[in-house]
Sequence to fold (168 residues):
Amino acid sequence: MQGNIYLVGPMGAGKTTVGRILARSLHCDFVDTDRLLEERTGVSVGHIFEIEGEAGFRDRECKLLKEVSQFRETVIATGGGIVLRKKNRQILCKGGPVIYLQACLGILLRRLRHSQTRPLLQSGDPKAVLEKLMHERDPLYRQVADLVVRVSSDSSQRTAARILHQLP
Fold:
């Protein structure tokens, strides 16, 4: 493996779980940008949203992506909204293969139904929020993706195996 592998997609698609499996299989490092941001700030993503708003969080996320893009031979699971900024999309496209984990609304709702840690789902109707996010972000995920992998109810192991089989 040369460079990094980036996983993009909506919250609940399995980027962290699949990313860890890929990293183990490829004998390389793994980074989850949301978890790294939490470790560095000492607070949750939700708390950052609460204090700084989404714009403040996106600023931090952009700075962190620029930093982790300098890593080598790392599988990087990104936050669901990382593709919203053009600068981030440019970084992703230059850094190595980008894999879009595409999941249908039903799978996302099932996986996220008890989540208390997703700031964008804490107000309003989760189904409506996810539909809106998917509509806005799917074209951006596709724009940066070298590979689109449809997530099904298969295990994360199977999803990772499909990715390994299709990696360029």
